[in-house]
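so my prof wants the structure for this chain in the tokens format not the other one, which i didnt know existed until like an hour ago. anyway here's the sequence
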Amino acid sequence: MTGQARDHGGDLDRARAAYGGGDWIDLSTGINPLPYPMPQIPPHALNALPTATDMSALQRAAAKAYGARTGIVALAGAQAAIQLVPRLRPAGTAAVLSPSYNEHAAALAAQGWQVRAASDLSAMAGADLAVVVNPNNPDGRVWPPEGLARLAGDVGLLVVDESFADPTPHLSLCPQLHDLGERALVLRSFGKFYGLAGLRLGFALGGAAALDRLRALSGPWAVSGPAIVAGTAALADETWQQATRARLARDAERLDAIAARAGWSLVGGTTLFRTFETGDAMAARDRLARARIWTRAFPYSTGWLRLGLPGHAAGWDRLENALAGSGQ
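here's what i got, hopefully its the right format
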């Protein structure tokens, strides 16, 4: 697996350079467009370094939210963990379930790992390190935790990226981690489901040795004071979480219906993003960009286009109007 472009969603600068300025709607990411309401940030969270007490409270809230009975470390987003995972062990052979989020393979290759793409779990056996994104980005494939737990016994280290798992907690491997010891590591994103990606907060859960290494690599104060305050509050707010899961499910169905009327077929996704077969992804993206709606295409598919969810009525109306008649 070589030569993989490290392109991402969320690159509105690129959209503006190509199509001009204006009031853009960014649907190129899978970030909840209706975020958790930010709590008031106390002065000490801004003018003092984070304390171990505050960090422990955040990590306890996250472990409870994820149903984990194992160690946990807070980091500056799941992306920070992805960059550090290749340094947890000496470089060897790595298998990445593909196609998927391209940073996993790129980060491993940059640290000297021999990376190969795998199409299913059985093809990953024997790897020194295996990466599964569950639910997968961008096609939404899912694997039950029981199957992942079995895979952990067939590889040196299993890394499961659960950045999009908050809407479907039953898919999480976190409740089984205490039985897997150092054989598995789970990565969680805070910013996507809670819609606060700019805070840069995420977590790694797993065995003590791996987490100690991550702490050492990330250095002191890896998470900001405001992120600690907001994360602790949001992760404990079960009422908001349940209501948000229900809303995201309704909105995903609405997006599927709009796309179907445009003649697109659903490839898959989560309730935070949907990926469609459009027939011509670049033409479809261009059509939406001219309406100042930015979406995500992929270098390995000529037809796939991924869309996040509009957050407000005006955004839904603009998307529907832009796609009206596009399948004709």
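also thought this was worth mentioning. The chain has two domains: 12-35+239-323, 50-236.
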